Amino acid sequence: HKEEKFKVIHALKSLHQYNKISINRILIPDGPIKIPFSRLFHSKMCIGSDLAWLGTSNITPDYFYSVSGIGCTIFGNTPSGASLINYMTKFFDRYYSSNYSTYVDLSK
Asked: Per its UniProt entry, which superkingdom is the organism in (predicted)?
């Protein structure tokens, strides 16, 4: 698991060199009863201004090649597509701007 985390951070740092990106890590605290995997932010989405992707797999290269899953691309050039992208953006922003979110410094 540690090796996988290193690969992800390395990929993000590489991307950050060419186009400054901001990464936050979202950690939701345990609830009163510890139920495994019950308090995860487990969304798999990539959102642009007029295009979005929503799927069941993590957005890392090995998942695209070795894990089965499903995903869909949402185009914002239709009223329903634009509405869904707007909803996804609000969902993302709610957690990205929350107290559960901490900045990941990619310059280190």
From this structure: Eukaryota
Task: Decide if 97 is inside a domain.
Answer: yes
Q: Which has more confidence, 56 or 62?
A: 56
pLDDT, residue 21, reads: 79
Cβ-count burial 44-75 (b if 16+ within 10 Å, e if not) = ebebeeeebebbeeeeeeeeeeeeeeeeeebe
Domain contains 108:
no
Say how far apart CA 59 and CA 26 lie, in whole Å.
16
- Region of 37 (left: φ > 0; alpha: ψ -120 to 50; beta: rest) is left
2: confidence class by pLDDT, cuts 50, 70, 90: low
Give me the percent of the chain exceeding a pLDDT of 90.
Answer: 30
DSSP string, 24-72: EEE-PPP-SS--TTSS-----EEE-SSEEEEESS-SSHHHHHH----EE
Mean pLDDT, range 85-101, rounded to an integer: 93
